[in-house]
Amino acid sequence: MYEILPYSPERESRWDRFVMEESMNGTFLQTRKFLNYHPEGRFTDASFFIEKSGVIAAVVPGCNIDGKFVSHQGTTFGGPIISKDFYSGGKVLKILDEIDNYIVSHFKGIVLKPTAPLFATAPTDLLDYALEHKGYSRHSELSCFTPLSELTDPLENCNGKCRYSFRQTEKYGLTYGELPDSEMEKFYEFLTLSKARHNTKPVHTIAELRDLKQRFPEEILFRGVWKDGVYLSGMMIFVFKQAKVYHFQYLAPDDSQRDTNASTAMLINALREAARNGAKNFSWGISTEDGGEYLNENLYHFKESFGALPCVNTRFEK
Question: Top-level CATH class of 144-317?
Answer without folding.
Answer: alpha beta
